[in-house]
Design goal:
By secondary structure, the protein is mainly alpha-helical. It has nine helices and five strands. The protein has helices at residues 26-30, 52-60, 83-96, 100-105, 118-166, 170-248, 254-257, 261-322, 345-355; strands spanning 4-8, 16-21, 38-42, 45-46, 68-71. Strand 3 and strand 4 (45-46) form a beta hairpin. One of its GO terms (biological process) is positive regulation of receptor internalization.
Length: 388
């Protein structure tokens, strides 16, 4: 088995050419024969004027080795990416995010890769990115709330220490001073915990903002090569269908009669696109495997560090709180009238509100105490206010 497929031949096309080179075959390992090359002879016998099936039988009839003579297609790959190929790439990008039923209902023809194992890996990459993004947001929120808690501990410690300084009784002084030191120690333990959490957040951010975007950039290059390759595959299929339609109508196609150069050029471009696609596919597969291994190892290590830091802080805080057992209650010297107020401020506020309204709840004008209702000599009737 040589590992090639051929096309053209009598009676439609004046030449026989290579359509595709299969992987891991003698033709692919030899490396000189490419898609679009014209086959001129098989085992030194000319194939001019022969059909495609006759050329196939001549190749298969060789017992051990087969010698194929060919004319190299000197094509310029830059001529391949026409406007039609560009539009097909755009269409494949759009269809990529559609279901098959939706694309079929819209009448969008496309080429697909069967059993593409990278699809699941790319889905895992997106899921891991969402996981790390959620972890980073959660740890940032956790550190913010812990910081507010530790600041409250520090302020409480300062307040109780100030109370202890002003307390004259020894037992109360000791209790408040110890209580203030406990809050300060808890704040210090919390700061130590935040210093441990910050590198964890940095490592997760590095994985999220550097490792994953670098892999996604490679995936974008792979996707571009994939869509280009699929576009050429679709173009070849459309040209095959066009040729088949003309054959059924028993009509000749000009490009086929003149050697089918345009079709052979598309075949060559498809082969080059396939080589590029295969190379990028291998690179993406390796990067995704390495990234997945790093994810498994890194996420476990970072979560262990996170849990260990929080547990250590909780243990230190619990130890500090246990040492407060027995300090309270304490006796304090207070003035006799310390809890007696001359007037309740809320009661005064409510009474003022009631004065501003009558019994029916309607607002009334408030008259100052030094205001007199008696009119002056120069006042008119319009200046008199009836208070009845």
């Amino acid at each position: 088995m040589v590992g090639i497929s051929i096309g053209g031949g009598y009676p439609n096309c004046p030449c026989v050419y290579v359509v595709q080179i299969f992987d891991n075959t003698p033709a692919s390992r030899e490396g000189t024969l490419e898609s679009g090359d014209e086959i001129t002879a098989v085992n030194n016998k000319s194939v001019k004027g022969k059909t495609k099936n006759e050329v196939v039988k001549a190749i298969q009839s060789s017992p051990t080795e087969v010698h194929i003579s060919y004319n190299k297609l000197h094509a310029e790959p830059e001529q391949g990416p026409s406007l039609d190929i560009v539009l097909k790439k755009v269409k494949h990008r759009i269809v990529e995010h559609m279901s098959s039923s939706t694309a079929d209902s819209l009448g969008l023809s496309r080429a697909i890769l069967c059993n593409d194992s990278l699809v699941k890996k790319l889905q895992d990459l997106e899921r891991n990115a969402e996981l790390y993004r959620g972890l980073v947001v959660y740890i940032q929120s956790l550190m913010k709330h812990y910081f507010e808690l530790f600041r409250a501990h520090k302020q409480l410690g300062d307040v109780f220490s100030e109370v202890a300084v002003r307390e004259s009784l020894e037992r109360a002084n000791h209790a408040f001073n110890r209580y203030g030191e406990t809050h300060r120690n808890m704040a210090k333990a919390g700061v130590r915990m935040l210093k441990i959490l910050k590198p964890i957040l940095t490592d997760l951010g590095t994985f999220l903002h550097k490792a994953i975007p670098d892999t996604e950039l490679t995936v974008q290059k792979y996707a571009d090569a994939k869509f280009e390759y699929l576009s050429y595959c679709l173009k070849v299929k459309e040209m095959d269908d066009e040729e088949l339609t003309f054959n059924q109508l028993q009509e000749s196609l000009y490009r086929v009669e003149t050697g089918n150069y345009e079709y052979r050029l598309v075949l060559r471009c498809r082969q080059l696109a396939r080589v590029k696609f295969s190379k990028l596919r291998a690179d993406v597969s390796v990067k995704l495997d390495l990234l997945d291994q790093k994810h498994v190892q890194d996420i476990l290590c970072q979560l262990q560090r996170l849990i260990a830091a929080i547990c250590r802080y909780n243990d230190e805080a619990a130890t500090e709180i246990r040492e407060l057992v027995g300090l309270f209650p304490v006796e304090m010297d207070l003035k006799e009238d310390v809890f007696q107020y001359k007037q309740n401020p809320f009661q005064r506020f409510n009474s003022e509100e009631r004065d501003d309204h009558d019994d029916d709840g309607e607002p009334v004008a408030r008259v100052p105490k030094n205001w007199s209702s008696r009119p002056r000599a120069d006042d008119t009737d319009q200046n008199i206010i009836d208070l009845n």
